[in-house]
Predict the structure.
Amino acid sequence: MIEGQPLIDFGWIAGHLESIGQRIIQHLQLTIVPLVLGIVISMILAIWAVRQRRAYGPITAITGLLYTIPSLAAFAVLRPITGLSLLTALIPLTTYTLLILFRNFVAGFVAVPADVLEAAEGMGYTRRERLLRVELPLAVPLMIAGVRLASVTTIGLATVAAVLGDTFGGLGQLITEGIQNFFPTKYLLGAALSVVLAFAADYLFVRFERLVTPWAHARAGGR
Amino acid sequence: MTGLATQGAVVQFEHVSKSYDPAATRAKNVPGAVNDLSLTVPAGKICILVGPSGCGKTTSLKMVNRLIEPTSGRITIDGVDITTRELTALRRGIGYVIQQVGLFPHQTIGENVATVPRLLGWPKARLRERSEELMGLVGLDPAKYRDRYPSQLSGGERQRVGVARALAADPPIMLMDEPFGAVDPIVRDRLQNEFLRLQESIAKTILFVTHDIDEAIKMGDLVAVFQTGGILAQFGTPLDILAAPASEFVARFVGQDRGLKRLSLLRVADVELAQAVTARPGDSAADARRRALDDPLRYLLLIDASNRPLGWVSHGDIPAEGVLTERMANPVSPVVNKRTTLKDALSMMLDADVQTGIVVDRTGAVQGLLTIDAVARKMRDGEHAPAFDRLAVEGATGEPGEDEAGSLGSDDPGAGGGPDPLDPVSPLEAGTGQS
């Protein structure tokens, strides 16, 4: 930090709103794409694991293993294959969501009460109808809980993608540049915006969950 | 009631067995096995499957909608082997109610009730109409409940929704697995009564599982008592089973108080009534006294102008001349009607410390007398009913046995003189003698 310089230079912020906005959009891209891919992959894995209980252990082990790979190491491994591209950032960020999402999705299915499943079967639901109209809707609250957690984690992790390049670096780029240039405004702003994004995402999913599962929040005694 | 047209169908088990391999049985709580079950449930009757846990009653029930497949034997509905029907079509044609109800938490009550019609692809407007009709049928105001979620209902209300949902597509058969087991006794009693009333109008064939012998006796037209190992220990009407348990096991299962239980099933109408010597205030005392002395009771029942009982006058209290007055009447005997259960009537008589109850009709007019002696005789008669053999043969040959349940208490009440109120009789003796 340079002597006499204020901790946060509001003048600089005001002068760079456009590039800051750019970084936020990049960061959202680094978050949303892995999240969507993660949700799709985890859903398929979860439905498979619920039908084939034997699959649950191996899938958990593999997603857990992927989760433990340090992100920088993953980038290093992928770089010879995918280069300094956005894809190199998206692949590890996607794999990191799998453990959380898969386990929560399975938990969502497992939490569907046995009596509800029995009633559905006894009344003549086909397997497909039961999955789509009973199990999936009832698994939604726990699934969204997993998505909330994964989104917050991914927003934080995505800052590391800055090492891959300027063109898609997101808020991590602000933080790295701030540290390199001894300019606290930049890295504090990058960190703060990342935290704000995480809170916002969390809040949005909470609202979304209430919207799509009114039954889970219905109070005794009527509406 | 619109839309409730389908009446019950005959459900028949033919030498049905279900065994589980020993490894699976050890692994988790597998339902009980079933051993060579042959049983016919006539159309429109409630058949209760009752027995201790692990006796195979729930397994038997679930084999009807093929949630469990038998190891051998076959089950038919109206003569058609159930395995020849498409599985989902079979299940959509059978109402299914379970103890935990299994309502869909994410659907409103209206949507829950319309489940099977929706699966069958009914048009939307009809779903809604049917759903509201069914809610009304089970005593839930559609305007109040239609848009609520199951979590907003009490246990009893949820169970009503469960019954409504099972009836929604008007199936000829209902399978009910301890449907009232999870609610408190007061609510259970009310639900049972309402369900019996409902059944009078819908006349479904109902297979109903319970472990509670009292519920079995109350709800069943027919009762199948299972014992451990999936063996059908006895099949018959509740009265037959109480009067003549087929084995030591059944006798123990129905309990020491089976005599009292029979009393609660029998009504005053089932017993031969004695005729009272009656007179009205203002009648000649001398004539009344002579008539009282002629009667074994030696009591005179004073009645008013509308034949309503005023009370007893002992022959000793009747003056030699003059007229009878209302003041002479001693109103000690309990007044019962033909619908009163013998258990209640007997209890009232014991409370009043008398041997005789006065039976009146709806207007309160005297119809006759119920004596403890007549009750005791009725109980003794029932003991000889060869209930088990008769029904077992019917079950095996597939004869639906058109009227097992209707034959309650129609036995010849036995000849013999009028009741003697002075003869001490224990009305419970006959019922407890064998256990």
